[in-house]
Design goal:
Helices cover 0% and strands 41% of the residues. It contains no helices and twelve strands. Strands 1, 4, 9, 10 and 12 form a five-stranded antiparallel beta sheet that branches. The protein has a five-stranded mixed beta sheet with strand order 2-3-11-7-6, with no helix packed on it. A two-stranded antiparallel sheet has the order 5-8. A hairpin with a 6-residue loop joins strand 6 and strand 7. The chain is globular. About 12% of the residues have low confidence.
Length: 155
Amino acid sequence: MKFVPLFLAGIVMSAATGAGFAHSGPDLSPYPAAKPGQKQHVIVLPPHENEDQLKLELIVGKTMEIDCNHHMFGGELDEETAEGWGYNYYLLDELDNGASTMMGCPDDSKREAFVRSVDEELVPYNSKLPVVVYTPEDVELRFRVWRADAEQIVK
C-alpha cells in the first residue's frame, strides 16, 4: 500500500470542543454523544473513485516533550456499532502509560514530538459516512489515507 496525500484527505472536526464557527457537518445523530472526559473526532472524507482500493489509518497519541529514545503508548482502538443504526465508530478508552527505550541521552536531546500508540487501526475508506472516533480529551487523532497498487502480482 502507498500513502496518498489527498490534500489533508478531508476535514477533521472536533465536535466536543465547539470550534466557535457555524458549519454544516454530517448528521451525527446516530452516534452516541461523547462521555465526560472524552472528545468526539469526526473525519469527513472526500469522494474518490475506486474507494475500495483505499484505506484510512487512524493514529492516536499525544504531543509531548521527549528525549532521544523511541517513545510509544499502549492503548486499543475498539470498533463499536451505533445501536439501532449499524454504523461503526471507534473508541479509545485510554492510552496506557508511555514506554520508551532506555538509552542514555544527551541533555540537549529534549524536543516536542507526537508520540503515537502502538495500536493503529486501518479502516475502509467510505466517503458516504463520517468516521467517528472517541478518545480521552487529551489525546490527538491523526490519520493517513493508503492506496493499494493497481497492479496485482501473480505467483
